[in-house]
Automatic annotation (TrEMBL):
Keywords: Membrane, Transmembrane, Transmembrane helix
Coiled coil (residue ranges): none
Transmembrane is among the record's keywords: yes
Keyword Metal-binding found: no
Domain EAL intervals: 1-255
GO terms assigned for molecular function: cyclic-guanylate-specific phosphodiesterase activity
Name this protein carries in UniProt: Diguanylate cyclase/phosphodiesterase
Residues of the full protein shown: 635 to 889 of 897
Organism of derivation: Orrella marina
């Protein structure tokens, strides 16, 4: 209760910050994107996980202000993140919770932030979960289609958890599927898990979508997942989430 209340002032007090984790191209090893992740440093309790305070923010309605802020942050750092000697901008992906997605002004908000920051729509990506599709599926598809038409790339996050079903994937206007890290944990020791991942990758590719593997922590996992056909990796093996400044330095050194 106390925490939920404190979250309201955390934004104002500057206790929230963003970190960025790179997405690595499996074949070239280059940084092809980054995911923006929010952090809350509470003056007494220290760092509180978004896994804890995002649900609270969704319940209290604070998620609107919080997501607006993450979008501004992400779009503000985006132009500084250049690879390939300065020409190619590394796009930044923001997590969009279902509560925010389902609001009528969602697409307008994205358009507004892009316009105000001058960021190209193809520099911003969004990550949604299947939760956005539980209600008003047709409306969800309409919003995604509109964003995509603007040039915003859409990822389906945490794929393989919850209500996952491969059958609806083909009806969704999405570009990337992020396989949940629970698929990775035993991939090198369980033949069944490896075959499952191979199958999912094949299906996603048949739908002309890109496969991101999350939670890659060891070189063994990376080499097997590469053989299984993954396109992009994200995980501690390559980098932990970094401050904008550290992320910029990493991009400069890599490219
Ligand atoms: O970064 P970390 O692993 O602690 O994140 C835990 C959970 O919080 C993940 O499910 C992640 O998607 C979510 N999360 C992190 N940052 C944000 C954010 O800015 N917005 C939303 N909606 N979720 C976030
Ligand atoms: O739910 P979502 O996929 O948005 O959550 C992403 C979170 O996963 C990041 O916030 C990050 O803290 C966490 N994460 C990223 N890479 C790894 C990893 O290699 N191992 C583990 N355990 N967590 C990771
Ligand atoms: Mn995510
Ligand atoms: Na995920």
């Amino acid at each position: 209760m106390e925490l939920a209340h404190r979250l309201k002032s955390a934004l104002v007090e500057g206790e929230l910050s963003m970190v960025y984790q790179p997405l690595i191209d499996v074949r070239s090893g280059q940084i092809k994107g980054m995911e923006a992740l929010v952090r809350w440093k509470h003056p007494e309790y220290g760092f509180i996980s978004p896994a804890q305070f995002i649900p609270m923010a969704e319940e209290s309605g604070q998620i609107v202000e919080l997501t607006n802020w993450t979008l501004w942050q992400a779009c503000s750092v985006s132009p500084g993140m250049r690879a390939d000697g300065g020409s190619a901008i590394v796009p930044v992906a923001v997590n969009i919770s279902p509560v925010y997605f389902q609001r009528d002004d969602f697409v307008d908000q994205i358009r507004h932030v892009l316009k105000k920051t001058g960021v190209d729509p193809d520099q911003l990506q969004i990550e949604i979960t299947e939760g956005v599709l539980l209600k008003e599926q047709q409306q969800a598809v309409t919003k995604l289609t509109e964003l995509r038409r603007m040039g915003v790339v859409i990822s389906l996050d945490d794929f393989g958890t919850g209500y996952s079903s491969l059958s609806y994937l083909k009806n969704l206007p999405i570009d990337k599927v992020k396989l949940d890290r629970s698929f990775v944990v035993d991939v090198t020791t369980s033949e069944a898990d490896a075959e499952l991942v191979r199958g999912v990758i094949e299906i996603v590719h048949n739908l002309n979508m890109v496969v991101v593997i999350e939670g890659v922590e060891t070189a063994e996992q990376a080499s097997l997942l590469s053989l299984l056909g993954s396109d992009l990796f994200q995980g501690y093996l390559f980098s932990r989430p970094l401050t904008a400044c550290d992320m910029q330095a990493l991009i400069r050194n890599c490219c």
